[in-house]
């Protein structure tokens, strides 16, 4: 069907898509302007932490199904009859997406693509972006489609190999059907072919909907702490209603990552730009910020107010199973807490290499933190341990050892991962977000 498939952009979406396509028997050329990233990929390093991705990447390298090239779209697109654009679309302070690089890449790629090829935009874009690209590239034989990604970090490979749905927006239904045919899927994957604008909007709405559910769960947690209720039981009852469902109704320290904040801000910008500003959409983002500030305040309220104190932080990535620090609520929280607590020690399973430590240092700026190699050294002599990321490792902590080495055995669990029964038997003061008012010293 396609003789030359190219993926531009070797980030989360691009490299996961490329490896998944290869696993279905398709040869793929991956292009990126970052020469260091391309070198690492050639050596079997996917540059991101995702379960199963490194092993599958190496398998595709060994089978010669995947190849890599350092360069821009014009170089990569030569002779391509299917060209995926998987470039980041960050937003400015107003929520307006920065689309210049993506649009320029589409223009450059279209000039060198094979006749009657398809150019598929995987990046999140504003509605009508695909139409604008199609009109401006100057080649009527090129089919411009939008095929948004819906993967979750931490389960990116699984989500790409067996997605809940495939959404394709296109004017040419045959081109859309051909693209749908080669994309990885399971027998349960729903294929939705629509117009480009609807597909573009579907991605933005999907992530904003998820953000709204998490925001609401966190609001319930804040209310529960002030009323004496247990937010986990409250949300269990709420989620039992099939009209609502229980996914994304788990309270935590806030939501972050590369998608939810960006897409929520982008939708707020869109509603503003079309003349119907939405207080509801605006509040999703602002309420998340408020919740993050409340968690930081709770941590300070649990710390001793006098003398030399030590805070132990378990987890700094925005969620477990990934090394992504972008817009992590944990980072925002520790940066805020560090204004009043100077002795903060951190353990995160992802901070195990010089490159990930460097990434961490770049996002915390001038703030100084002590990175430890295991959770027990992190909590040694600490006055408070705070769980900020839901790593599976934290569900299996040796709580007896933690009690033995901590200065004061107090744990503030914002992710509901610590075994409450074992902690109680050991005499550990376990405070779970959304179940009680965390004010030990305030």
Quick structural summary:
The protein has 442 residues and is α/β, with parallel strands linked by helices. Helices cover 43% and strands 13% of the residues. It folds into two domains: 190 residues, 3-Layer(aba) Sandwich (Rossmann fold); 213 residues, Rossmann fold (3-Layer(aba) Sandwich), CATH 3.40.50.720.
Describe the structure.
- Helix 9 packs across helix 10 (231-239), helix 9 packs across helix 11 and helix 12 crosses helix 13.
- 43% of the residues lie in helices and 13% in strands.
- It has 17 helices and 14 strands.
- It folds into 2 domains: 5-194, NAD(P)-binding Rossmann-like Domain (Rossmann fold, 3-Layer(aba) Sandwich), CATH 3.40.50.720; 230-442, 3-Layer(aba) Sandwich (Rossmann fold).
- It is globular, with a radius of gyration of 23 Å.
- The chain has helices at residues 12-23, 35-42, 53-62, 73-76, 100-112, 129-136, 156-161, 173-182, 196-227, 231-239, 260-273, 279-302, 329-337, 354-364, 375-379, 399-405, 420-426, and strands at residues 5-8, 28-32, 66-70, 82-85, 118-121, 143-146, 165-169, 190-194, 311-314, 344-347, 370-371, 384-387, 410-413, 429-432.
- It is of the alpha/beta class and 442 residues long.
- The model has no long low-confidence stretch (mean pLDDT 94).
């Amino acid at each position: 069907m396609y003789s030359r498939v190219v993926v531009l952009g070797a980030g989360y979406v691009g490299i996961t898509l490329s490896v998944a396509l290869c696993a279905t028997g398709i040869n793929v050329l991956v292009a990126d302007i970052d020469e260091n990233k391309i070198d690492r990929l050639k050596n079997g390093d996917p540059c991101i932490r995702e379960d199963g991705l490194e092993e599958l990447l190496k398998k595709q390298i060994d089978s010669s199904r995947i190849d890599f090239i350092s360069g821009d779209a014009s170089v990569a697109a030569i002779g391509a009859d299917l060209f995926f654009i998987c470039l980041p679309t960050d937003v400015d302070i107003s929520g307006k997406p920065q689309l210049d690089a993506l649009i320029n890449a589409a223009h450059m790629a279209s000039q060198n693509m094979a006749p009657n090829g398809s150019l598929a935009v995987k990046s999140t874009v504003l509605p009508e972006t695909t139409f604008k690209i199609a009109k401006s590239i100057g080649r009527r034989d090129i089919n411009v489609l939008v095929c948004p990604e819906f993967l979750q970090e931490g389960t990116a490979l699984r989500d790409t190999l067996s997605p809940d749905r495939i959404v394709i927006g296109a004017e040419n239904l045959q081109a859309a059907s051909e693209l749908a045919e080669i994309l990885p899927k399971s027998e349960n994957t729903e294929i939705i072919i629509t117009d480009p604008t609807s597909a573009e909007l579907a991605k933005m709405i999907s992530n904003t909907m998820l953000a709204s559910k998490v925001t609401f769960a966190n609001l319930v947690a804040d209310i529960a702490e002030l009323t004496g209720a247990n937010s986990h039981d409250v949300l269990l009852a709420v989620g039992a209603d099939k009209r609502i469902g229980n996914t994304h109704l788990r309270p935590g320290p806030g939501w972050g990552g590369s998608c939810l904040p960006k897409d929520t801000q982008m939708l707020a910008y869109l509603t503003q730009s079309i003349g119907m500003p939405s207080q509801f959409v605006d509040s999703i983002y602002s309420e998340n910020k408020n919740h993050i500030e409340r968690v930081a305040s709770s941590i300070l309220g649990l710390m001793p107010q006098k003398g030399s104190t030590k805070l132990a932080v378990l987890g700094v990535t925005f969620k477990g199973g990934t090394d992504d620090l972008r817009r992590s609520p944990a980072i925002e929280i520790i940066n805020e807490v560090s204004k009043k607590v100077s002795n903060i020690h951190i353990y995160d399973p992802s901070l195990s290499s010089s490159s990930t430590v460097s990434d961490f240092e770049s996002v915390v700026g001038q703030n100084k933190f002590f990175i430890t190699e295991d959770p027990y050294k992190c909590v040694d002599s600490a006055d408070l341990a705070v769980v900020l990321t839901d790593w599976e490792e934290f569900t299996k902590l040796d709580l007896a050892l933690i009690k033995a080495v901590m200065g004061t055995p107090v744990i503030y669990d914002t992710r509901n991962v610590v075994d409450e029964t074992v902690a109680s038997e050991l005499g550990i003061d376990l405070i779970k977000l959304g179940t009680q008012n965390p004010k030990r010293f305030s």
